[in-house]
Write the structure tokens for this entry.
Amino acid sequence: MDYAEQDAAGGYAEGVPCWVDAMLPDVEGGKRFYGELFGWAFAERAGAGAGAGSAYGQYTLAHSDGLPVAALAPKTDGRMPTVWTVYLATPDAAALAERVRRAGGSMVREPMPVGPAGTVGLAADPEGAVFGIWQGGTHQGFGKQREPGSYCWTEVYSRDKDRVDSFYEGVFGYGGFDLDLDGVPFRTWSPPGAEAGPETAIGGRSLMSPATDGYSTPETPPHFLVYFNVTDADATAAAVTRLGGRVQMPPHDIPYGRVAVLRDNQGATFAVLQD
């Protein structure tokens, strides 16, 4: 972690992404897909995972180099989305949930304890983009990030940037920094106390439209996109196709590396970054 991402106790500062998980209809299939794609190994933990999936029973932790990097959880209701969720750290999940509501967001799932691991909740911003909140206990979050095979970035895709910016910057105290990425207005967010800019950013906001993000449709709801670091974005995109997934946005260069937006063989969308 960068200094700006740490709290006084050495954990994750509030608002910093600390965990990701995928809700899938077939966890065993997900293990085969991501195990081959990222080289992950897996261990099941009944009812004691870090994220929302733990509320539904088996929670399968993914490890890279023996360190926790993500989790897969079963969907128990077909109406649930097949999706990757990012969790933002907080020292007080109940207080954060109240701030979310006061700022115009909502709680999809109120904070609930997950044994000694911590406390989890699911929130939605004023446009409906869903993110998790995590108050760490024995599980603080990633054991590895920003290295190949692990989480490296997240951004929310919105249609009303002013409404969304004021929500996240009000709730988490982020410092915002505006960029123009090939004509797309983009804003990075840095933790409180850090000089706002790409060097300290822990996430960002982009605008969503087929003309700007290259993969959504007018019916696609606002959402978060989770990125994983890879050594070769083109080879990863080819592997996704071979494994039964699909490429939603082909590998292409941006100022910060080479990226691709992909969908796994069950429908969960994610992105990769080769830096």
Confidence is low (pLDDT under 50) at residues 46-50, 52-56.
